[in-house]
## 1
Amino acid sequence: MNDTYRKRMQTLLGAEQCQQYFDLLDTEPRRGFRVNTLKIDDDSLFALTHLEREKTPFAVNGYYLHGETGLGATPAGVAGLFYMQEPSASAAVTILHPEKGMKVLDLCAAPGSKSTQIAEMLDHTGMLVTNEINTKRAGVLLENIERCGTANAMVLNSDTKHVADAFPSFFDAVLCDAPCSGEGMMRKNEEARRQWSEKLVAECAALQKEILDNAYACLKSGGKMVYSTCTFAPEENELQISSFLQRHPDMHTVRIDVPFGREALAYPGHTEYARRIYPMDGGEGHFICLMEKDDRKEIVPSVGLIKSEQIPACASKFFKENLTKPYPYMLSVRGRIYGGTSPFYQAAGCRLMRHQVFLGEERYGRFEPSHNLFTSAWGSFVHKVDLSDDEVCHYLRGEVIPRAMDRGWYAVCFKGYVLGGAHSDGKMLKNKYPKALRLR
């Protein structure tokens, strides 16, 4: 371990706590998961999977996981019934506490653990905008958002400055889970140990300053914001917040009342109201600060809506015959059809990867449904087929399923929970599970 880092942690924690911390770095990290309440409740998931678990204090639907690995590739994982997540990583959204009907921004969102948690709490109400600047990581974010099944999420792949320009003073709540030096990842990531330096801390702090100011620009008057990191460096945490509050006097910290973590360090602006989580506290490593923007009258530029073309007749017919309930909002753009529970707002100047649920597209006068239509948790598909355990394995590998059924489209299910779609020609189910997701 870097001697400079060891000395910094001893100054931060004191000799006894510091020794406990370094002893824990050589133990296995805590593993966990969150139940996806958009698709299943806790009791139903445990009856289905028999997971060995223990409740965590960090989220109402969060659990420590004991023993099992590779759960993401199981049918329940593929169906999006749970999300694998380091247990204390759910604390930031618990503290933000988004409420139904809110417009919420997750500004630095990949791989999507916090975005999917926000989606669960919004429960298809309000709106979630989730952004990731790195294109490859944004693809992972989109995949997780779709597996979760949320019907009100806009996924962006943009610089935070572009997001701020597109959505001035727009959001009721903003999560700014900023990129950091990763000191809280050292127990589970050897690379985090190797790459650490005081230079990295300084570089991250400079980037966080810019991102925080962009997060502020997105927050409406009277709104709330959580700034969080997975590091312990005061330069990236309390000192970052203290400096931010000096730049934005209409923001103030809010004391966090939760049964986990410990009080943060005290700097100007009541930074001690924030929380720190160490491995000694049942997690890995996090800093979480809750702030509010003063409620003032302000003139806010409006965010426009995307103009829809007419929904193709073949698509309307398909939805009427195959969906149990319509989407409240629909959008048609060059033959591609989207549905959602929120208006289709513009994101001017941003790279838009997905707006709510991509339902499918018109091809040669007929409608071709997308995988996202089947994974969406909004309503359900009229025609379903439940596969045996062996058939599920074949389906997830992209193979045809011999099954005589009426012609048409079906939601393919594992014990009633949707995995994807298939089309029957009367003799067999032609597999429509995406090639990129198939098990090798």
## 2
Amino acid sequence: MSEGRSCPLAYRYEPASLCANPMPVTEDVLYVIGGLYGNPFALDEIERMALAEERQGRSVKLVFNGDFNWFNANDDLFRDINSRVLGHTASLGNVDYELAAPSTGAGCGCAYPEFVDQGVVERSNQIMARLQDVAGAHPDIQKRLSSLPRYHCLLFGGLKILVLHGDPESLAGWGLAHESFAAGNSEKLTEWFRSSGADAMVSTHTCLPVLWSGEIEGRRCLVANNGASGMGNLSSDARGLIARLSLSAPLSGSVAGLESGGLHVDLMPVDFDIKAWLAEFDHIWPEGSPAAISYRKRVLEGASLTPGDLVFPSIF
């Protein structure tokens, strides 16, 4: 397969191994942050959101599940984003993996499916090549990225929360994508929950958000894909989204939410300074650049979904 559509063997893992050693979490709330894409203003807002919760007596753990790099293709912003993110719990996305240890023939490492236009694929490869040049000037950051895991299993409120980037078979898998749920692909989902023993899977990578809950072999299970925290996900809405997990009732202001087995999962909007981010984006990626062509409209206008498109009924 061509660059940008292939999936390196190093991206792959066995579902049965993913929750073998869950890490206990003592905080009251989890923020799972995927697809920051190098947006420092989104990170500012996420930190502000966590601080507001802590002021109300709730401890918050920030967990980054990959692709915190992408548009931050200058030295200062690259170092700022990575230094801040790596102070928290983090795992790799394909972007971060390819910055730490580029794979021959992988391009951006996105493993884009056939329904994605080839022009998008080629521009993503060009974005990656430029970002790799920047990363090469920061070997200390590359070393820290190379030490990150590809996923985390967290023990939260007695539940196993599998936090990954793509799906339970690949760092760049699309099995937990909005498109996959829209197509009703239930067989793999059943297998993944059965094999992993996870109670919830929290993903990103595919840029469009998803919430799903259902019963698998008598056990309540849940999937959340936050889409992107650093870029708009809904129609005419430039705000990012994060997944907020808690054992208490959800906060007001969520875009969409589900409860399963006592676990509340909400997609919370990240209302960052869009004017400031657009100015920074345009400086790094001017008109005609690969990122401007592929992403500027979405930065301004969000994606095509409405909140009602995010929650999928049980497909079993």
